[in-house]
Specification:
alpha+beta; 7-stranded antiparallel β-sheet; two-stranded antiparallel sheet
């Protein structure tokens, strides 16, 4: 709960989702709402940290294999070692696995020029926003979507850097999510395995120490182009509601009433021009 602003967990419209408390090395580091049908996260919630990021092997969630299994992320090899009688195919029934993303890595190694227009592992909660174990904890496939490489490494990365700069002097709460496509998938053995989302989105909320006021913002991106569309949290919420995602506020009190009032005024003033996040 500590990774949600004022403990407010946003409500989503679907029932095929599970809440995951992302645990690594016996500590919780962030939270995820996971879509077990599309095998991608709906969103991840966290607080931005400073420091140098760390790498780790990709991990999965044993608790998505069987409820009685470990409530912490592990590599697939560790899950197999811990549960030797388990059919390895069971690991991927309700979540993405290493094998699902293998083709992306093969494209990367075989033809770098062609790969520039392909997909790669797109973090929702980025490793660059954390250090040490918290950074390693982002390397779970329940925090990953297939994201266009150009978007992931350019405009999206620049927006992540913007949020990290804000966190140097402020406690920044972030929600990052993806909206699944109707029929675009990573396929393996002729099976639709991992949904390739149509849109990425991000919302953030913090108390600005300089101006002594609450501030927030939102942004969306199409997963086929290298552009970021910035807007208010209210405008982002309207976009998510249009796509039948969120059913209520993203942040408690819309990141406080001062910001909610300002956001509403801004939305009203720009109504003629449309919602910049409605892409």
């Amino acid at each position: 709960m500590e990774y949600f602003y004022n403990g407010h967990v946003p409500t989503w419209t679907s029932n095929n989702h599970v809440h995951i408390c992302q645990k690594f090395n016996n500590c919780y580091h962030f939270a995820t709402l996971y879509d077990t049908t599309n095998r991608i996260p709906v969103y991840s919630a966290y607080k931005v940290e400073d420091g140098k990021s760390s790498d780790h092997s990709w991990m999965v969630e044993p608790q998505l294999v069987k409820q009685e299994f470990e409530k912490k992320m592990m590599t697939q090899d560790s899950v197999k070692h811990k549960h030797p009688t388990l059919d390895p195919k069971e690991i991927g029934k309700r979540q993405a696995t290493d094998e699902d993303y293998e083709e992306l890595e093969q494209n990367k190694d075989q033809n770098k020029d062609q790969y520039k227009d392909q997909y790669n592992h797109g973090h929702l909660n980025p490793s660059s926003h954390h250090a040490g174990d918290a950074s390693k904890a982002t390397m779970t496939l329940t925090n990953i979507v297939p994201q266009r490489k150009k978007l992931n490494e350019k405009k999206w990365s620049l927006h992540e850097a913007k949020l990290k700069r804000l966190a140097k002097d402020n406690s920044v709460y972030v929600l990052v999510g993806a909206i699944p496509s109707e029929g675009n998938w990573i396929k393996r053995d002729n099976e639709a395995r991992v949904n390739i989302p149509d849109y990425m989105w991000v919302a953030y909320c913090y108390y600005d120490q300089t101006s002594q006021s609450y501030k927030s913002g939102g942004a969306t991106a199409k997963n086929v182009e290298n552009k970021i569309y910035e807007c208010t949290v209210s405008q982002l919420q309207a976009f998510l509601e249009k796509h039948k995602q969120v059913a209520g506020q993203l942040f408690d009190n819309n990141c406080y009433v001062e910001q909610a009032a300002g956001a509403s005024a801004a939305a009203g003033a720009s109504a003629a021009a449309g919602n910049p996040c409605d892409i």
